[in-house]
Specification:
The chain starts with 11 loop residues before the first helix and ends in a 20-residue tail after the last helix. Helix 1 packs parallel to helix 3 and helix 2 runs antiparallel to helix 3. It contains three helices and no strands. The protein is elongated and about 65 Å long. 46% of the residues lie in helices and 0% in strands. The longest helix has 15 residues.
């Protein structure tokens, strides 16, 4: 029989760090991000530094680069021109 994982003992501040870490991610990546953070924290002595490192590592795996923005548009690329 497979044992059910035990819940992590997190402070309110640590939980806030984890949830804020999910904000810049695409919504469909929130669940896998949270699962990865939990996996990185499981069976470890949890402190604020470890939580921050786990968030940073998980964000690195799921964060998408921002869409390219044309920083130097020509006068013909503005709205209203066809």
């Amino acid at each position: 029989m497979v044992s059910k994982p035990q819940p992590l003992a997190l402070s309110d501040d640590q939980m806030t760090i984890i949830l804020r870490g999910a904000e810049p991610l695409h919504p469909h990546d929130h669940d896998p991000y949270l699962k990865l953070v939990a996996e990185l924290l499981r069976d470890r002595e949890i402190g604020d530094g470890l939580v921050s490192r786990a968030v940073r590592e998980a964000q690195g795996r799921y964060r998408q680069p921002p869409a390219e923005v044309d920083r130097h548009p020509t006068k013909y690329s503005r709205r209203g021109y066809s």
